[in-house]
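The instructor's notes for this session suggest beginning with a concrete chain rather than abstract definitions. Hand out the sequence below and ask the class to guess, before any prediction is shown, which regions might be ordered.
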Amino acid sequence: MGKVVDFNISSLSSHGNISSWVDSAVLVASSLSCGVGALYYIMLGCTYPFFFGIVRNKCIGQTRVIDGLRRTLSVLVWIEKITLVLLVSILYLSSFHDLGGRSAVTLVLVFYRSLLLTFRRTQKAMKVFILAAVWQFLLLTYTPPSAAPFPIFSALLPDSMLLRAYLIAIVVDIIEETFQKLKFVLIAIVSAWRIPSQRRPNIKLLIGMEVAMFPFVVALVTISSILAVPILPVFGLPLFLLSPIRPKRIWPSLAKAQSEGEESAYYKAMLPGLRHKLGTLINSGGLGDVREGSFFLCRYDRFLVIFEVMEVGFAHALLLAKGMELAETSCHTLEATDVDNVFLDGFGRGTTRNRMVNSHWLHCLQPLSSMTVPCYSLSSMQLVGVMDDPDLLASIPRTFLKCLVPVLCSQAERDSQQETAGDWVVKGESKYGKFSSLGDELFPDEIFASLSFSLSTDQRANIRVVVLSIFHAIFDGYDDLDDRGKKGRIVDVFGAVIQPSVLATDLFQCKDIQGRFGGRLLLSLSVSALRIALKLSIDDLLIGGVAEDGDGWLDRVEKAQKNMFIGSEGTSWVDAIERKKEVLFALRRGVDGDSINAKTATWTDNEVMVGSLLGSAVEGQWASLLFELVYLTNDDEERYSIQSHPPLLRNLTVQAAEPPLGYAPFSALFSTSL
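After discussion, reveal the predicted structure:
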């Protein structure tokens, strides 16, 4: 029988040499990790609007400095990951060298969790191993007396640095969550007294009870942190209970939350840019310690997006985006205004920009960063003095003719490329030949010469016939109308509300023209030309100094056809958003039926502000909402517990809840690369 070989690492080297080598390696890796981690946290603090969320950072307005710091932080993150992996591996191997009665399975699990912590939550791993290194340093420099005052407690403490780090990670999570929930409690108590709308008749009694029983509140918060359950404000009051046991996160049902309306289209268009920028910020640490259950809020113009982190991996993060409604209700407007004030003051643009202390510290939203994202910028204005301008109304017919020619020619070119075009020449005996001698002075040959394809003399003549026929069909009797009548005619045609008498004219029934364009297509091209003419005329009146003839005019018309949507709101407007047209323009009548309002959406790069939401406040209010609806069956839409609460953003938080509790018009689950 063969002999059993007892392979022992001591056979290769003495125990003392191994221990010395391990201690030296741990010392070097720990020192490097602590140094890089300390430098990282110092530089990271300089990129936030406030140090520790309280003291104002005066460097926040220097964009070049902040961008340089973020690029450096992205490099430091990977250096720290490599260093921590090296440190964890050395500690793991050294623990196997001397198990000391520990289970090998326990060490493997701790090693696995430590690697996960390093790659998924690098910022927390830095804190954990810095504390573990400090603990190790204290143990090496201070030897406690042999008769320890608490021998049982001393026996429970791990003697391995890797196990100590794992214990510290658990304790740090509990402590951080406890402080978050205490801040939630403090915000609810203080705002219940400071904000008149939150001051209930018996609020003094409730606040007195909370103050008198504050040790019990702290104990309640600590127990909830250990059990990882939210604390819920009962009926929205500063009176807290443990949430009923339920899953902390439910996988979102996107089918119920997804909308196909205009609001959803705006958010869908800006989502790719947000995804890329958020990935960059997460990678550089600009959003802090990102973990499952973190919440962030993005704000630009009227747009509000709340992000919930569903999963964080080695090179990706899975986020759930909820786009808030754009309708300016009283509750929504109140909280959205408060969000703007928090961001403006945080980035030094508000009324409190000269204060060194954060005046919004007792708020569930804390500003973190800003980013440039391509998205739509919305604007709306009343065209007072514009649509009433006599010169504008008088110039519309001529401008319409100048737009209709290139619109028809562009359609003809597209048809020719698709090989669906018939003979361009309208028969000479056409009843519209009587218009062939009209308006030649409006059609100089330079217009045709500037087109991208050539037309014969007969084709040019017949274009004049069609164009002038359309002109007379739409503008017949236009000069006899007063300014109000002219404005009404223009707005009706702009909205594709064509007079029945116009549709019944021989022009739209002519077989020759229908064979070339089709009656419905001809009508669509006519309306499109009028819309372009009105948009360019309004631009000329408001901006001025734009080319009117020749190549410049044709370039403007071509750009309007390719890059703009000019029409009415509705399905076509949503389709244009999905195609990411550069400019969207629409007219609509005012409430009085006489005023005209213009709505514009412009695709451009805009500054989007990002802040972190207090996760305990969001989850607590969701738990309160579920408690009321499920256990108390209180579904009153005007109940106090869902009304606006600016410091807690209660209305926005309720809107972002999972359906059927929430009602966000847009919801999307996406992954971003880190």
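Then share the key points. The chain has a mean pLDDT of 77. The CA atoms of residues 186 and 291 lie 24 Å apart.
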